[in-house]
Each structure stands twice: as C-alpha cells, then as structure tokens.
Write a structure and sequence with these properties.
The complex is a heterodimer. Chain A is an all-alpha fold. Chain A is built from 15 helices and no strands. Chain B is mostly helical. Helices cover 75% and strands 0% of the residues of chain B. The radius of gyration of chain B is 18 Å and the shape is globular. The chains are: A mainly alpha, B mainly alpha. At the A-B interface, helix 1, helix 2, helix 7, helix 8 and helix 9 of A face helix 1, helix 2, helix 3, helix 4 and helix 5 of B.
C-alpha cells in the first residue's frame, strides 16, 4: 500500500467521499438562536461601519471646506492685485511700434544681435518724447526703415527663444528634480506598498489570532498564520486533474473555484471512481449554489452514479428540496 | 461576476466596508463547514454552538482589518482553531469525545432515523457513513483535527501545519494515521 501522506494533491477519495456523504446526511446544525445572533451581530457591525464611513466622509468634506474658503479668498485677492498692477498698462497711451521695438531692446540688453545705438535707446525710453517727434524724423534717424525694423523685430521675436534657451538649463534642472522626486515618490510608494503588504499580513494574523494577543503562550500560532500570507500553494485549478478538482470544488461549494474550472472548459460531467459527477457530489453535500452553477454550465441532471442513483433521487433522499427543484427545472427525471 | 460567483475574499472586503448582505452570503457559504469542524472536534453541540458564535463574531469584528492576502478559508479556520484551543484550555464545559460516545451514537441514530433521508439515505447511513463518523470521533484529537481541517477547510498540509503551529512532517504523519484508521473502518464495513 502506498503510504505517501495524503495532501490535497493526493486525495483519498474513498475516505473523503464517505465522509462527505456522512456529512450530507448529518442533519446536525448550529442552533437557530446562534445563527440569528450571528447574523444580527454582523448586521449591526455593518451598520456601524456604514455610519462611520458616512461620518468620515462628512468630516472629510468639512475639512475640505475649512481649507477651501481661505484658498478662494487668497485666489481672489491675488487676482485683484494682479488686476491692479496690469490694468494701468491698458490705460497708458500706446507708443508707436518703434518704441515697442526699442523698448524690447531695452529690456533685453544681452541680445546677441546688434542693438540700436545707446542714444537711440535712451532717446526712446520716454514714450512721450517719442510721440512728440514726427514720424519723418524718426525715419531720418533710420530707426523706422523697414530693413532696420525687420532686423530689430527679429531679435525681439527671437527674444522668446533666447529666453527659453537661457532658461533651458534651469528648466532642465527643475525637470530633473521633478523626475528625481517622482522616482523618490515611486520608491516611497514601493516601500509603502511593501509595508502595506507586511501590515496586511500582520493584520490578518492579528485578526485571526486576536485571542493569541491576550494569550502569550500561543504566539507561534500567530507566526504560523503569518506564514500563510505567502500564496498557499498553486490553485487547485492548476493542478494535475481539473475534473477531480471540479468535483471537489462542487462538493465543498467553492463557487469561485468552480467558475474558474468551468471557465477552462473542464469536463463538467467527468466522473470519479464511483461514477459520481460534480453535480452528484454537490447534491450530496447540499451545495445548492454549486448545483445551480453546474446546471448553468450544462451539467447533465440525469447522470447517475455507478449504483444507478441520479442526482434527483439523491436530493430527494436527503431532503434537499431546493436542489431537487433546481434539478427538475433542468430536466432531471 | 454575479453575487453568487463572488469570491470569499471579495465578500469579506465588501462586508468590511459595511455591506451586511456580503456577510450573510459568506456565513451561509461556510456555516456548515465550520460547524462540522467545531462540533466533530469538541464533540458537544452546546460548546460547538458557543464556539460557532465566537468565531463568527470575531469574523464580523475583524473584517475591517482583513486584507485579502491569504485565502479567507485559511483565515476563518485559523480563528476557529484558536477559539477551540482556548475553549479546551479553559475547560469551558468541554467534555472529551472519549467520554461522549453517546454523541456519536446520536449522530448515527439520527442518520438512520431521519425520515427525510429516505431509503437511500438510510441505506447509506447504515453502512459506511455511520461507521466513519464513529471512527472519526475515536481518533486522537490532533489527528481528527488535521483530518477535519483538510476535508472541511479544504486546506493543504502546509496550511494545516501553519494553523496548528506544527511541522509539515507532523501534519503529514497525523493525516496518514487518521486516513489509515478511517480506511480500515471503511473496509470493515464494506
């Protein structure tokens, strides 16, 4: 006899099947009072939590409005100040375009292109003086010659590019800084994610082992639970015999696993050594959800086991009336 | 994904956020597995009822702290195991299974007498199923618990070892002994 210890990979179907059959036949259940207490308690907790999260939402909103008001006033004040500074410029009489050109030169003395003579610049600095001079005189000075204007306009046009070029190193620096800070942020995020993962492990262990916190004699169980944070093994669906796992998932009412396996086209009516399909095992275990899922995926409601017992007969025999009804709806005889 | 198809972990997270219906779903999904684990380990329905309440109260209380990094069933059975150990340590109205043979008799009697089981159920109960229940209750507590964690919790050897704070080899050994004895019982009643 093979004495290899049984794991989930090597289930002892005989023992397990008989155990499950016995469990299906065992009408022992928690008392109705306990069930009601549990569900009521859970409902109360849920209501508390829903209330807490609502209150937290209100608090968050309140905190936001507390900051929003000064922010709005600050923005308005800044806008008003900017308006006060900018508006007078609109009321100042516009100087001729030459003035604008030379003023651009004044503003940008470091322009690499040849600039106007200093006296010209100085002569045009006061806009009123420029206005007083008749245009022909200005032409005489050669300032308003189209070529000169074009030449002078060009640096003025280029001034933006020049400024950009001038500012480029600073900009590059700030972008690099931003990238660095983003990278720092990412590494922080990664760190916090790892920390969150650790704290999740601690949370689960602590939750599962809340009594262990009070019982110092049982810390190993806590560390044991913490070890479970690592994936508890490959999912059953990935193991060798999907049909066997389908039957087990059906018998244990593991709907999520059942859906996964059925989604992978696992043979829904594959039988075990006793000729039982997943539908039969789910029926024997009273797993009505699993029965519904299997029927929805086309399980044969009339697939009898090696004794000739159909799922409907089994459901009727063990008093699973809702399952029997579901089977009949699916065409069971 | 439908509500029915939602994983335990998703339901637990939903409940942690205040969705009572998610708990209801989870409870109904695992009620009998936890019940059988507790009742067959402690061998006393009143104690099992108390433990059942404590386990699910703990689930409800700790739900906001639950993080779906481990399987919900592993977490659930860890709570159940710890509560049961607490109960045994404090000897809170716990009576060992060895002195509670009548519980097994009651279960077997119920299996055979329950009119809902009908001829098929009665026939099944008469032979191997009833014998297996008796044999299970006669197993040493550690072997029985390992077996129950495996069949009711659908847990791996590694997970059982972690929950019971035992080595992997120890659990393998307990499961081997438990199954050998149960298999012998089945052969006797084949």
């Amino acid at each position: 006899m093979n004495d290899v210890p049984p794991g989930r990979e090597e289930p002892d179907d005989d023992v397990e099947d008989v155990y499950r059959r016995a469990s299906a036949l065992d009408s022992s259940r928690p008392s109705e009072l306990v069930r009601r207490r549990i569900l009521k308690h859970a409902e109360e907790r849920a209501a508390e939590r829903a209330g807490e999260s609502h209150a937290a939402g209100i608090r968050r909103t309140g905190a936001a409005s507390q900051w929003r008001r000064p922010a709005i006033f600050g923005t308005l004040a800044a806008a008003a100040l900017a308006g006060l500074l900018i508006t007078p410029r609109f009321f100042t009489p516009q100087a001729p375009s030459t003035t604008a050109t030379s003023s651009a030169q004044v503003q940008r003395p470091s322009s690499p292109l040849p600039s106007a003579p200093t006296e010209q610049i100085e002569g045009r600095a006061p806009a009123t003086a420029a206005d007083e001079q008749p245009p022909p005189r200005a032409e005489e000075q050669g300032i308003l010659k189209p070529q000169a204007f074009a030449r002078k306009a060009a640096p003025s046009k280029n001034s933006g590019a020049d400024l950009a070029a001038k500012n480029a190193p600073a900009k590059a620096q700030s972008m690099a800084a931003a990238r660095n800070s983003a990278a720092d942020g990412n590494s922080d995020a990664a760190g916090s994610s790892a920390a969150a993962s650790d704290s999740a492990a601690a949370n689960n262990s602590a939750a599962a082992n809340n009594s262990a916190a009070a019982d110092a004699s049982r810390p190993p169980a806590m560390s044991g639970a913490a070890r479970l944070v690592a994936p508890p093994g490959a999912p059953a669906s990935l193991l060798s015999d999907p049909a066997a796992h389908l039957r087990r998932a059906a018998a244990s009412g593991d709907i999520a696993e059942l859906q996964v396996l059925l989604g992978k086209q696992t043979a829904v009516d594959a039988r075990d050594a006793g000729g039982r399909t997943a539908l039969m095992l789910a029926t024997l275990q009273g797993q009505s959800e699993a029965v519904d899922v299997l029927l929805a995926h086309g399980a044969d409601p009339n697939a009898a086991d090696s004794h000739g017992t159909t799922p409907l007969q089994a459901a009727n025999a063990i008093g699973q009336l809702s399952i029997a009804t579901a089977l009949q709806r699916a065409g069971a005889r | 994904m439908t509500v029915d198809g939602e994983s335990d972990e998703t339901l637990m997270v939903r409940y942690g956020r205040g969705d009572a219906a998610a708990f209801d779903r989870l409870y109904r999904r695992h009620e009998m597995r936890i019940w059988r684990y507790l009742e067959r380990n402690v061998g006393n329905r009143a104690t099992a009822d108390e433990l059942m309440q404590e386990v699910w109260f703990a689930v409800a209380r700790d739900a906001p702290r639950y993080e779906p990094t481990a399987r919900f069933t592993t977490w659930l059975f860890t709570i159940a195991h710890n509560r049961m150990i607490d109960s045994i340590r404090t000897n809170r109205r716990h009576v060992s299974l060895e002195t509670l043979g009548y519980e097994a008799d009651a279960v077997v009697g119920q299996l055979t007498a329950d009119p809902r089981t009908g001829p098929l159920g009665a026939a099944m109960a008469r032979d191997q199923a009833g014998a297996l229940i008796r044999a299970l209750e006669k197993l040493p507590g550690e072997q029985r618990e390992a077996f129950l964690l495996q069949v009711e919790g659908d847990l791996s050897v590694e997970e059982i070892a972690a929950i019971t704070d035992s080595s992997f080899e120890t659990i393998k050994s307990r499961l081997r002994y438990a199954r050998t004895k149960l298999r012998e019982t089945l052969k006797e009643h084949a």
